[in-house]
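Subgroup meeting minutes
Present: P.N., E.W., G.H.
Scribe: E.W.

1. P.N. recapped why we're keeping a running log of single-chain structure predictions: easier to compare across weeks, and new members can see raw inputs and outputs side by side.
2. G.H. added today's entry (294 aa).
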Amino acid sequence: MSPVSKDQNAAIQAVLLDCGQQAQAAAAQPFEVFEKGFEDYVTSVDRALDTQLAQAFSRQFPADGVVTEENRCSAAAFSCTQHHPNRRLWLIDPIDGTEDFIHHGQYYSLMVGLLAQGTPQAGWIYGPAQERFYWGGPDWGLFQLGQGGEALPLTPSAPPDAGGDHCPIILGDRDERRFGRAIAAAVPQLQSYALGSYGLKVMEVIKGQAGLYIYLNGRVKLWDTTGPLALAQAAGLVCCDLDGEPIRFDSTGVYPHSLIHRQPIVVGWPSYVDRFLAPIRQTVLTVRAAELGI
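Output recorded in log:
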């Protein structure tokens, strides 16, 4: 069952398509780039779309909370939902994969996630440069936008056999630099690759291009994860940390002020999680111990 009405879903798609097309047009023009923190960037395009999306969702869903990446004050809505658990929360990332966008890549997206009672209910991911639009949720199903603008069912595709010699996984760029060589040495059949947007990485796993996506660097936030993990759960994938514990979306699993997840995040097909989670966990612990000189 869809957590939004047909008209509401159409309105969400319309505003994301419009903003995505604006982003694609802006990518071909000069724009400003700012550094929010170490290796953490935002552009004037992110900020403009952030405002536009926040206004659109606040008008469409006035009873719900709205949190956007570039409006730090909006994060207070998360704490409000912890005291009012029946209140829904929209998490919006105006450009996911900003570094890819800055370098005129193809792997950035606009993302929206709906969180209720500490659980991802639905997600929308639009990659304008690739003309790919996905949405759905655990009790709703998975869908993609057809070339004629029609809604088409999206069937998850299994990755290469976890027992084979070629088992593709996805690591983010920073995790690849830190852990990639050690993971490849410990589990030679794993071949890792990277691309930009968190949401598009999760879609790679749903579509069977990779068996796992592993995020370890401790910076991922609710607006990165809520929508993609709603789609991953709808696809029957496992969403857990390195200990195999489910990802938590309440104040026990998220720092309330920054909305950063406390847990590393693994998204994957059950066969890959069963076979590779333990050796990956041990490898990560070994690398971290070596960095600390333990």
